[in-house]
Write a structure and sequence with these properties.
The chain is an alpha+beta fold. It has one domain: 3-Layer(aba) Sandwich (Aminopeptidase). Helices cover 31% and strands 36% of the residues. The chain is built from five helices and nine strands; from the N terminus they run ββααβββαβαββαβ. It has a nine-stranded mixed β-sheet, with helices on both faces. The radius of gyration is 16 Å and the shape is globular.
Length: 185
């Protein structure tokens, strides 16, 4: 069932079905778009993916499946809620290489951030991104995220260390640039 719909994709509540978990694990294990993934080890088993999703839901995370006409192509959501600060961590993974570079990630990010500020009473949404993932950094900047700092040699991947960039967007910044809401089901 569609939760939010944009022009390029729709967000659905992540059901954590066997099919979703298998598609996600297969996409991550293929490594086509996941070279900048912050967490996890390869290879992943789909049953472990389901357990992780369940654990995150129990911790209060809000998780969406990203869907296009081509089917289930990724996940995004709000994690690590800090109630006293009204702060959420944003994460997204588009595992279908055919969906990359078409604005799907930007639209899914925009809809999720809209949900954070308008439904979750967020004051701040933050994220971490590989410094050399220029496509993702541009996506987040389009949505309004601003760089807060650089974490030197934060991530070890493929035999070397990489810097990470911390970015965030504040509620007043979001409201100043966004007046139209995505459609909800």
């Amino acid at each position: 069932m569609t939760f939010m719909k944009g022009e390029k994709c729709e967000l659905r509540v992540l059901e954590a079905t066997d099919e979703e978990a298998k598609a996600w694990a297969q996409g991550v294990n293929a490594g086509l778009t996941t070279r900048h993934l912050f967490s996890g080890s390869f290879p992943m088993r789909w049953i472990d993916v389901q357990k992780q999703w369940q654990k995150e839901r129990e911790a209060g995370s809000v998780e969406f499946g990203v869907w296009t006409d081509g089917g289930f192509i990724g996940t995004c959501g709000l994690y690590s809620h800090r109630d006293i600060y009204r702060s959420w961590e944003f994460r997204i993974l588009i595992f279908d290489a055919n969906a990359v570079g078409k604005g799907v990630g930007t639209e899914a990010t925009r809809m999720t951030v809209h949900y954070a500020f308008n439904r979750c009473n967020a004051h701040r949404v933050y994220l971490g991104v590989y410094a050399d993932n220029e496509r993702a950094v541009r996506c987040y900047q389009k949505v309004g995220f601003k760089e807060e700092g650089r974490l030197r040699d934060e991530i070890f991947c493929f035999g070397k260390y990489h810097d990470a960039i911390r970015m965030s967007i504040l509620e007043d910044e979001w409201r100043a640039q966004n007046t139209v809401a995505p459609s909800s089901a």
